[in-house]
Write a structure and sequence with these properties.
The structure holds 2 protein chains of 2 kinds.
Chain A (H helix, E strand, L loop, with lengths): L1 H25 L13 H8 L3 H23 L9 H14 L4 H11 L6 H12 L7 H13 L3 H15 L2 H10 L5 H15 L3 H31 L6 H6 L14 E4 L5 E4 L15
Helix pairs in contact in A: 2-4, 3-4, 4-5, 5-6, 6-7, 7-8, 7-10, 8-9, 10-11
Chain B lengths: L1 H13 L2 H9 L5 H4 L7 H23 L4 H7 L2 H6 L5 H37 L8 H28 L4 H25 L8 H13 L9 H5 L6 H28 L4
Helix pairs in contact in B: 1-7, 2-4, 2-7, 4-7, 4-8, 7-8, 7-12, 8-9, 8-12, 9-10
Classes of the chains: A mainly alpha, B mainly alpha.
């Protein structure tokens, strides 16, 4: 009987301890790092015929880390995120399982906008194209990176051509010529981000893409006003405020993260990031 | 209980388990050779490798010795002779358990000392950008040992309900892997991606998380690798969790063992 009594007491203690324990584990600073991952060759040998499972586990780890980090920090773009660690996880994943689309998608979402490494993103996507020969997303992503980030229009045209051949869609084939003028870059980026956002299933990635898309939609509004101003006045406006004063903008769009917009000498719109990143600043008409 | 305790310790010593483990642990001497293969984090790699090797040896000992403590006694019919003496079943069980965890503590001290020595050697040759945190390193080693003590208690419970060799061995294996995966599953459900999972699966996963031992709570490898400070309050909760969970498992083992027919 005394054993049963002791068991009941311990079970009550267990229930009482669980909540603070779980909270303390989730508040750990361990996620300052995405963790270390062994060399992909060693991991390949160790995983035997479970390479796909190990790869899926690594990508899941990266997703949990990124999602948890974004959520805990309450910020959309977190400079403390261990992006290098995430990159290591993704690169190891595609070595173990070169068909793992989650890894390519993750690489495309983070290596370009957040890490400013479009060349590395394209290197990973090129690796994927050797295996996922039916998947037009990979050349489409790579084409976008080449055009938008690297301004390598020849390479972009090649990638879009490849995507077009896979889908048979003239839209992709024509993308390179259609959008890659200076004025069309933002439209291309908005279209691309809409597609990425629509396909994203992980909430943290989705939110990240949404911020980018909203930011570029607002840039696009200003760009169109600049274009109209130039056509009417025969000169470039000096500031964004000029556009509002002259009636080309009903009001100056708000930067979604609390920063601002300005025009450079060529009339290009620059989005200024705030010193301290905040939650999305909503605006009427946002979806 | 003390006689069973000392018999357990002497038995493990007689089987030359410590010597065998030390022989394998000589692999740790390779740590200063392998670590410089890392381009940017030589000392960090030495910490990861050393802690992994210590953990691996503790795991082997826990599964193949801790997991078969009762089974061997039953198989050799040694248990029937012992229970014929004025020794209660609970005393027998506790004697076995505490004898084994004393051995595990000695093993951890020896292997941990060797690991810290190797890490200090590598850290002196290749000073890391962020200094090593010895407190975190020792915490990681200590909590690692507690994790295997809890796992041993789980295997005792399995031994107390089954005569088979397979249930304690494979059950302990399964518990080890599930206990490590449960936190990742819980984090996946609660931090960000939970909305994609049906509520029934979420509920089942959370129940599973609370029921199986949470070994992630004891895992300070990354903190030790990167020299991050440890939060004493957090360690306090983990210790409390260890005491309560181990207590529950041992009491359940006693209850099952007391009810068991011994023929």
């Amino acid at each position: 009987m005394r054993w049963w009594g002791a068991l009941v007491v311990l079970l009550i203690c267990y229930v009482l301890v669980l909540n603070p324990l779980v909270r303390s584990i989730q508040a750990r600073p361990l996620d300052q790092k995405a963790g270390v991952v062994p060399n992909s060759g060693i991991l390949k040998a160790l995983s035997a015929d479970h390479q796909g499972t190990v790869a899926a586990g690594l990508v899941l780890k990266a997703l949990v880390y990124f999602g948890g980090h974004s959520q805990r920090s309450k910020r959309v773009l977190n400079p403390d995120t261990d992006y290098e660690g995430i990159q290591r996880l993704v690169e190891t994943t595609v070595q173990l399982d070169p068909y793992n689309m989650d890894a390519y998608y993750f690489a495309q979402a983070l290596l370009t906008w957040d890490m400013k490494k479009p060349e590395e993103a394209n290197r990973i996507l090129d690796h994927g194209m050797k295996y996922r020969t039916w998947d037009w997303y990979l050349p489409f992503f790579a084409g976008f990176n080449a055009a938008y980030f690297m301004k390598d229009y020849d390479a972009a045209a090649g990638y879009f051509q490849k995507a077009g051949e896979m889908t048979g869609s003239p839209r992709h084939i024509g993308l390179a010529g259609q959008y890659l003028h200076e004025s069309g870059r933002t439209s291309l980026a908005v279209g691309y981000l809409k597609l990425m956002e629509m396909k994203a299933r992980n909430p943290a990635i989705k939110k990240n893409l949404k911020v980018r898309r909203i930011l570029l939609e607002r840039v696009l509004v200003i760009e169109k006003a600049v274009q109209q101003y130039q056509e009417d006045e025969g000169a470039l406006p000096q500031t964004v405020e000029d556009l509002q004063r002259e009636g080309y903008l009903a009001r100056i769009p708000r930067h979604p993260l609390g920063g601002g917009f300005r025009l450079d000498k060529s009339g290009n719109v620059e989005a200024l990031m705030p010193h301290r990143l905040k939650e999305i600043q909503p605006e009427k008409g946002d979806r | 209980m003390w006689s069973i305790y000392s018999v357990t310790l002497r038995g493990i010593w007689r089987d030359k388990v410590l010597q065998g483990m030390l022989l394998v642990a000589l692999g740790m001497l390779l740590v200063p050779v392998i670590s410089p293969m890392s381009m940017r984090q030589v000392t960090q790699l030495s910490v990861t490798l050393s802690l992994s090797l210590v953990g691996f040896l503790q795991f082997l000992v826990t599964v193949f010795i801790g997991g078969t403590l009762l089974w061997r006694d039953i198989d050799r019919r040694y248990l029937y002779a012992v229970l014929g003496l004025p020794v209660s079943r609970a005393s027998y069980l506790f004697g076995r358990y505490f004898g084994f965890i004393t051995f595990l503590t000695i093993l951890t001290l020896v292997l941990g000392g060797l690991a810290v020595g190797m890490i200090v050697v590598v850290g002196t040759i290749y000073p890391p950008a962020k200094a090593l945190n010895l407190v975190t390193l020792l915490t990681a080693l200590g909590l690692g040992a507690l994790k295997f003590m809890l796992l041993t208690a789980f295997s005792m419970l399995l031994c107390s309900v089954s005569t088979s060799f397979f249930l304690p061995i494979f059950g302990t294996f399964a518990c080890y892997f599930m206990g490590h995966a449960s936190q990742q599953v819980y984090d996946y459900l609660t931090l960000g991606s939970g909305a994609l999972v049906p509520p029934a699966v979420q509920w089942a996963a959370k129940l599973f998380y609370y029921a199986v031992p949470n070994f992630s709570a004891f895992d300070y490898t990354i903190a030790a690798t990167y020299g991050l400070p440890v939060n004493p309050a957090e360690i306090g909760w983990v210790l409390l969790y260890f005491l309560i969970y181990t207590g529950i498992l041992l009491i359940l083992s006693v209850l099952c063992f007391n009810r068991r027919e011994m023929q």
